[in-house]
């Protein structure tokens, strides 16, 4: 069952997880029968999806990257991953 | 072209299986391959696979749950940060076993089903199994393991495709894979009794298309069409020696799980040689890698990087020449043999021969 968007507390859906591919030097999300390759900024976002709220993901990201406001991009990106069934709402 | 690292390892732990599916992809000569690698060698194989760049490992068979070291192997896979799938008939997949596998790090489960109705399912599987499969899925869902339900399609169950889709919804699986039988191995032997008619295939495609729209938010449906009815062949394995490799129960390393059907190919064994050496240098992996080996009409066809001339096992089975264009392709010089097979199947009723270890 895919999650409704927007996500308030984004976490990985069962069967999906982040991994660093040492051989290919790549960030990845792995899931049944698939691999999604992430760039640096996408990887920074998903690695913050540990049960904290979307607001807190954005705050933490802003601290990492300085002053630019990433909130719209982040929300869109989380939404896309939820539509693919890779993230879900972890509730509180 | 530089040889890419493989993404996916099919770890066939055993050819033993309680079921007898007449389309099984295991070799016909099951008795020739009774020896199985021990646990120590499998641990080494997983380690070598991870270092070679494998991301996903499919523990398969036969029935992999018949191996008592399965939980151990799954744990090793997780320690190596490999993503692990288990492909099972569902027999032996009780709640306790699944829980220990999940705790060891199993990521996802694939359970096969033969038909939507208990009686028909059990007839095709050769043993009572429907109820066990249902309970296995229930347990897996309780444990929050993602479940794919795999159904091999053929003449005998294709008309119940709507029931199969309903069942997948009721059982609340995450993904439904409806894959037409691939006519190699046992399925080739039983081809005349398994091939559906064109009308069946057409109707089923409509049912699936409709269900996909209707269930878009609830169930992912993968539909693998029967290549005998297509214009172009499948991109078998996404190219020989490019993405996948298989380690068979006895340790033979195969570019494709059914490649053993092709006489004359020599398969190296993990007992003697490392996976890396085999992947990059074994002649059997080099033989059909890339597109340089392709015959005409493939060589000058603009789909050559899409389907790589189709399936090697099928080319051999249907033409006797392993390096021929897959005859499923309508451009293949020997396409006639596919049409003959379809005609033959339409005009015949043949008994199924179930897979067995002859004693
Ligand atoms: S196809 Fe059937 S007989 Fe073959 S391994 Fe799978 S469950 Fe067993
Ligand atoms: S001719 Fe060869 S490359 Fe072209 S579509 Fe047919 S099989 Fe594929």
Low-confidence parts of chain B lasting 5 or more residues at pLDDT below 50?
Answer: none
Sequence of secondary-structure elements of chain A = EEEEHHHE
CATH class of chain A: Mainly Alpha
| Strands side by side in the biggest sheet of chain A | 2-3-4
Query: How many strand units of chain B?
Result: 9
Instruction: Domain count of chain A, please report it.
Output: 1
Taking the sheet with the most strands of chain A, its summary is: 3 strands, antiparallel
* Ions, cofactors and other bound molecules: iron/sulfur cluster
C-alpha geometry of chain B: globular
Descriptive overview:
The complex is a heterodimer of chains A (92) and B (359). Chain A is of the alpha+beta class and 92 residues long. Chain A has one domain: Coenzyme PQQ synthesis protein D (PqqD) (Arc Repressor Mutant, subunit A), CATH 1.10.10.1150. In chain A, 35% of the residues lie in helices and 24% in strands. Chain A contains three helices and five strands. Chain A has helices at residues 40-46, 54-65, 71-83, and strands at residues 10-12, 17-21, 26-31, 34-38, 87-89. Chain A has a three-stranded antiparallel β-sheet with strand order 2-3-4. Chain A is globular, with a radius of gyration of 13 Å. The model of chain A has no long low-confidence stretch (mean pLDDT 88). Chain B is 35% helix and 13% strand. Chain B has helices spanning 39-51, 70-79, 95-104, 118-125, 130-142, 161-170, 185-189, 191-194, 198-214, 275-281, 283-286, 304-307, 312-319, 336-346, and strands at residues 8-12, 56-60, 83-88, 108-113, 147-153, 175-180, 220-224, 244-247, 253-254. Chain B has a nine-stranded mixed β-sheet with strand order 7-6-5-4-3-2-1-8-9, covered by helices on one side. Chain B has 359 residues and is α/β, with parallel strands linked by helices. In chain B, α3 links the parallel β3 (83-88) and β4 (108-113). Chain B has 14 helices and nine strands. Chains A and B meet through β2 and β3 of A and loops of B. The structure holds iron/sulfur cluster (2 copies). One iron/sulfur cluster binds next to α12 of chain B.
